[in-house]
Amino acid sequence: MTGRDPLVRRTRARGVQTLTLDAPARRNALSAALVADLADALADCARDPGVRAVLLTHTGTTFSAGADLTDPPDPDALVALLRQIVELPRPVVARVTGHVRAGGLGLLAACDLAAASHRATFAFTETRIGVAPAVVSLTVLPRADPRALARYYLTGERFDAAEAVRTGLLTAAGDDVDAVLDPVLDGLRRSAPEALAATKRLLTAKVLETFDRDAADLTALSARLFSSPHAREGMTAFLERRDPAWVV
Predict the structure, then answer these.
(1) End-to-end CA distance of the chain
(2) CATH: 3.50.50.60, 3.90.226.10, 3.30.830.10, 3.40.50.300. Which one for 1-176+192-248?
(3) CB of 93 closer than 8 Å to CB of 109
(4) Is residue 54 within 8 Å of 45, Cβ to Cβ?
(5) Which of 52, 111, 124, 238 has CA atoms 20 to 30 A from the CA of 66?
(6) By its UniProt entry, which SUPFAM superfamilies does this protein fall under (predicted)?
(7) Are 16 and 53 in contact (CB under 8 A)?
(8) What does the pLDDT look like over 134-162, one tens digit per residue?
């Protein structure tokens, strides 16, 4: 028992297990607690033959704001969570109706399919707080267009759902995300579970190669950058709602 309310809610309909990130006051930031709760929920999905697919969604106006700066997860735990999504023998579909920032984009890119409403916005904000999108690159770099990533990784600019589709971070976008997802979920329900698992393994093989090759180095890079003077200044400035000292 954790002695606290769970940060991931679970519901099921016709074989689709919905996991809802439920820490809206903290913008569903990836805290140690939220990462642990999501990992537990995914493990239960993997063991349950009644789960045909997983739908990952959120409460509030933000899918995930990235790492929780006041209760950050252990980098190894975050890497393990991202790999768990990629390796899960069920398709994982992201349903986004709000904003996605930094580490939240790593979570989004770990999913097999992702759809968002046109209200959603996206940004790799790491450089603006003095770090780099290191761990999230394990899922983002194999999925997305390199030229687009160069711009958004380096500048931290926001971009919209249409641009996220163009870059490969999203599968589809629309005014009504549920209307976009209805045929996707129907298709998964009509597909044989063993065939879905085998097909997912084909699609994720290159992503898992990236984990095998780069996870240790990127985790070490993340830890080093987060302990740097620039990161301390960037995170302090973020929490104080001011520009960091390097802004000119």
Answers:
(1) 49
(2) 3.90.226.10
(3) no
(4) yes
(5) 52
(6) ClpP/crotonase
(7) yes
(8) 999 999 999 999 999 999 999 999 999 99
If you search the block for the tokens 């929780």, which residue do you land on? 68
Three-class SS of 15-56: CEEEEEECCHHHCCCECHHHHHHHHHHHHHHHHCCCCCEEEE
d(CA 209, CA 237): 37
Domain ranges of the chain: 1-176+192-248
Give the other-Cβ count within 10 Å of 25's Cβ.
8
- CA-wise closest residue to 204 among 94, 75, 76, 109: 109
| Residue the block writes with tokens 């990462």 | 35
What is this structure's pTM? Answer: 0.95
Other beta carbons less than 10 A from residue 59's beta carbon: 16
List, for residues 95-125, the tens digit of each pLDDT value. Answer: 999 999 999 999 999 999 999 999 999 999 9
Q: Which residue has the tokens 């097999």?
A: 112
- Which pair of tokens denotes residue 81? 């969570």
CA 12, CA 50: separation in Å to the nearest integer? 10
User: Alpha helices, DSSP H only, in the chain?
Assistant: 32-47, 75-87, 103-110, 137-143, 146-155, 161-167, 177-189, 193-226, 229-240
Cα angle 123-120-23, degrees, rounded to a multiple of 5? 85
Residue 93: what residue type? V
